[in-house]
Amino acid sequence: MGSPKASAATLPLILDIEDFKGDFSFDALFGGLVNELLPSFEEDDADAADGAGGQDMFPNGTLRGPQGAATPVFPAVEELLALFKDSCKELVDLRGQIDGRLQNLKMEVEIQDSKHRKTLAELEKGVDGLHQSFQRLDTRISSVGQTAAKIGDHLQNADSQRKTASQTIELIKYLMEFNSSPGDLMELSSLFSDDSRVAEAASIAQKLRSFAEEDVGTHGINMPSAVGAANASRGLEVAVANLQDYCNELENRLLSRFDAASQRRELSIMAECAKILSQFNRGTSAMQHYVASRPMFIDVEVMNTDINLVLGDQGLQAGSNNIARGLSTLYKEITETVRKEAATIMAVFPSPNDVMSILVQRVLEQRVSAILDRLLEKPSLVNLPPVNQGGLLLYLRIFAVAYEKTEDLARELQSIGCGDLDAEGLTESLFLSHKDEYPEYEQASLNQLYQSKMEELRAEAQQQSESMGTISRSKASISPSASQQISVTIVTEFVRWNEEAISRCTLFSSQPATLASNVRSVFACLLAQVSQYLTGGLERARESLNEAAALRDRFVIGASVSRRVAAAAASAAEAAAAAGESSFRSFMIAVQRCGSSVAILQQYFSNAISRLLPPDVHAASLEEMGAAVSSVEGAAQKGLQQCIDTVMAEVDRLLSSEQKTTDYRSPDDGNAPDHRPTNACMRVVAYLSRVLESAFSALEGLNKQSFLTDLGNHLHKGLLSHWQKFTFSPSGGLRLKRDITEYGEFIRSFNAPSIDEKFELLGIMANVFIVAPESLASLFEGTPSIRKDASRFIQLRDDFKTAKLASMLNSFMSDS
User: Fold this and answer.
1) Does an H or E element contain 56, and which?
2) What does the alpha-carbon distance between residue 755 and residue 747 come to, in Å, rounded to a whole number?
3) Across residues 170-190, what is the average pLDDT?
4) Which DSSP string corresponds to 434-460?
5) What is the pTM of this model?
């Protein structure tokens, strides 16, 4: 192998500036330098790698052979080093060349930059001048634009004026044709007779008419005299008259065409005619003509069919339910008819809402109003219709049904569409005269129902009385007829009438104040009815008590009568007692039914009335109800007092007839004293137990407590008075105490502590007949309050005189 320098000189070395331009790659540059040297050693490298087995490689790239000789692994390294050195030298030369070129370019750039700055300065001056020129140009353009716009406006106005002048000339020409002679329409242009140009002719005719009428009116105002006005507008008045005639003729012609198309259901022709007719009074005549031509308004049979559908063959006597069904059917038919007409109107008329307004108004004012006039025949409040023919109630029920169904119809029509028409308000006006007088009719109806019911009850009582034949007056008083007794069922019927009336008040009264006033007046009718009926029933029951009292008084006899007369009187007294007991029970039943009736009334007010009343009216109605109930309670209290009188009269009779003198003064016959209650006591207690059974079941609460307490006081007073008629032995005192115990045990069923205490004190006072005279003073030491009554008892001792108890009694009373 030769020297490195010689080898390097033989290798081509190409380094040029062009190699570094564009996309420079060091790998490509390096490959271009060494690729010519490296391929000649590739195969040697491979062989050397294969033969390296068993040979050692030194760190400097040589191999040691078997004999230890070293051979180079990369023999071209010297050539590559020489190549790399030459390449570095050339690279340094190239860098120097590039630096020189860069210096030259830098100088050229500075020169060019100086020139560029100078050019920019000159351009800025030129741009400023150009900008000023543009501003002047823009100002000029704006001025020219404004001028052009003004010119355009003037041209547009001129064109508009030209068109207006042309139209005016045309209108004047047509106006002169109408101004030719009065009533002469034969010489008019073909426009006014051509059926294909009817819309144009109608438009022009309306313009001419408006212009002529305005001109006539203006000259009539401005002319100083009537003669001047006539001379100035004489020609135009002729034109106005001719135009009016032509418009009328054209309108009639269009209406005829509209009718013909309507009969053939040619909606397009109808719509065309309606559009043209809308230029005449905004189409009012066409709309009214169409509505008036509907079959339901021109066919008389429609009205007869409506009335027959609603009333049938029975007329108003068909009843409110049948009339309600008839109205529902009729109004459903009317609704469907209006719905179909609405579809046609929407397709034909340019202003369908206006037509629907006229149609619905005509339906309500003509067809519906006619049937309402037949239904609502207002009866007289002086000569009321008979109840057997329905009375006022039939009118009110039909009124409510008609009002409710017609309101439903109005809402249906409003939903279909009726323009600006207030269908519900118009419907309300149809009933206005009836609603104004409704409260008077409702109250009169309730009064009529009440009077009719009372007459019915009186008739039943009379019939029962006649069926009894020749019954005695006293027997009749014992058994009053059922129709004369208070019935809760009848009171419930009163409430049912009132409840129905209240439902009508709610239906007819749209304003809260009106509703409250009507409800209060209707409820006041119920209060009067219940109060009058209950009070009357209580008065009839009291009459039975009075008759029984009269019977008792009739058979009171003196002491000196024959035995036969006394027996007859006793028999009559027994009959009078039976009458009194029966009357007592009847009155207690009446009181019980009154309580139930009042409870029904109060419950009805709470459930149905109170929620409809504002606070002030609610308080007033409560006060009125309280007054009505108080009147019933007043009648009941009078009767209860008579009941107490009846009971006490029978107690007095039993005591007088049954109490024997010997009951409290046992004969000295050696027999053991009788410790049983006396016969009079047992009869009285048995009577009280029997007669008061109805009182216990009929009375409640404070009424029961008050009645039993009052009766207990009367019984206590009556017994004291009765015992004052007898004298008592010690054994008689024991028997008296046994009677008092019997009475006290019965009285405890009254649940009246004050009465129980009085009978307990009676038992203590009875001891005055039992103890020895010397023990009397100590007997009442614990109960000084009864000393006065006890002193009267002491005087009834059979030994009062023999034991000289009078002086001791005086001392006893002085100590108290």
Assistant:
1) strand 56-57
2) 7
3) 57
4) HHHTHHHHHHHHHHHHHHHHHHHHHHH
5) 0.68
